[in-house]
User: Fold this.
Amino acid sequence: MTGLQITRCSMAEGVLAFTRTKEASMAETANEIQSINTAWQIAIQEILRMVIRDMYHGGGEASFRSHIKRIEEAAVDSIHTDLRLRGTDEWTEVLVKERASNFVTTLLTSFTYDRA
Assistant:
């Protein structure tokens, strides 16, 4: 993280230097948060892929696809009916639920039956 350097300068120069330092720090923080979120998403996706593969692989491809579809429908239904977001307005709650549902569908439809 970039630190604040104190040098002898006018007040205007000092404010400008502080602003640049703060902006650089915020950019680094945003990049760090993004990398943590991406790493977390990859980890969860891989864990789910392994669990689902191990649980449903033995029944054949049709059974596997049926299980995936059932999980997707149940998860999306749960998001829309059971999920409550405290401290948010209705628009934000609808947006979050819709995005979460899209993530569920995208994630589960990315799982393929491995014939090996």
